[in-house]
Amino acid sequence: MKYSADRCDLLLRSQSFHLHATGSPIVRAQRSFLLICSVAAALSVAASAANAAHSVERRAEHAVFVMTNDADANEVRVFERGHAGSLHEVRSYTTGGRGSGGTIDPLESQGSLTLSHDGNWLFAANAGSGTVSVFRVEGTRLLLTDEAPSGGAEPNAIASYGEFVYVLNTAGSSSVVGFHLAHGRLQRIENSLRFLGRNEAGAASIAFSPDGRFLLVTERTANRIDAFRVLANGELSQVHGNPSAAPGAFAASFSPRGTLIVSETGGGGENASTVSSYTVRADLTLQPISTAVPTLGAANCWNAVTPDGRFVYVSNAGSASIAGFAVAPSGALSALPGTIVGSNTDGATNLDIAVSADGAFLYSLNAGDGTIGVFAIDQHSGALTNLGAAGRLAANAGLNGIAAN
Q: What single string gives the DSSP state of each residue in 320-359?
């Protein structure tokens, strides 16, 4: 039986007229009962307060999520973030599907593991089984709510905007397919399938514009950027292909102001990678703003924009470095002092990168040595401070995908 403070007070008042007979066994029993009742009520109040505090604490947690991309059983590994940005692995969750397996960057994509804008949902691409998994996010805890067919072959990237979720299928007849997200379940949008410019397009990323009007996809094989208009019912217009302003278009992200930022591996040569920015026009054409800005590194295939849109960081996997750029209100890019603002150890092979939701930290997925690079972000200047590496993940084992809340 549960006792509240009010109930115990009522019992005390109702029994008070008996208390003059202090020597009576009945009175002693009544007093014992009331004492137990009072203690139980106090403990109940304390437990309720503790539970409320724990609930607030759980909601306030920050975490970093990494996908193993294991060919037998894909998993998401969860790391709890400390106050100073340090990471501690707390648990892992199976996606229910299979990854592609491999060694270094087998998916060749950005966005294989991605959070919804509100941080409530985590989406994982299961390239080996051709499915997409959906998790409900509660701090560092995940709840698998769905695993649905991707509608194509080898899904390697996912993007979401509100109730709309689009999946990029890179193999075979390369395509995008749309879904409605409702109560953690994916329902395919009729007539949402759209093919890209060619089969086996080497599709590498997919991104919604901040207002949800456009969906952009990069094709590595053709070195082009595909643009779609998003209709009110979630369907897409036909594809409009745009040539990349520089060779090696790989990953595309949007700033909060709507600037499209594209990482480019470059045309060959030492440290030839670049980054460009664009405006997306209403007719689905791209207007270049800054083109082929050097990243002073090799194999720049990933990028991440800070929540306030002031800075973008790119991952030079081939030189184990992070380059940083300021993003002007116009969308123009300018290198931060020195361009290279962070470095991992030689051989780390930093692939995907993620910025925490509060803009305080940057994390790099280092597939070469099985670690996560941890960097503090100076939110005034954009400079990075290397805080070391965390995690004991399998090295050279197909890791792909990182997200942070």
A: TEEEEEEE-TT--EEEEEEEEEEE--TT--EEEEEE-TTS
For 297-312, b where at least 16 C-beta lie within 10 A, e where not — what string?
Answer: bbbbbbbbbbeebbbb
pLDDT (tens digit per residue) in 308-352 = 999 999 999 999 999 999 999 999 999 999 999 999 999 999 999
If residue 2 lies in a helix (H) or strand (E), which one and from where to where?
Answer: none
Judge contact between 17 and 30, C-beta under 8 A.
no
The CA distance from 250 to 247, in Å, is: 9
Those residues with Cβ within 8 angstroms of residue 116's Cβ, 6 or more apart along the chain or in another chain:
122, 123, 160, 181
What CATH code is assigned to 63-404?
Answer: 2.130.10.10
- What are 134-163's pLDDT values in tens digits? 999 999 999 999 999 999 999 999 999 999
Give the global pTM: 0.86
Where along the chain do its domains lie? 5-55, 63-404
> Edge-to-edge strand order for the sheet containing 321-327?
300-305, 311-316, 321-327, 333-343
Chain length of the chain: 405
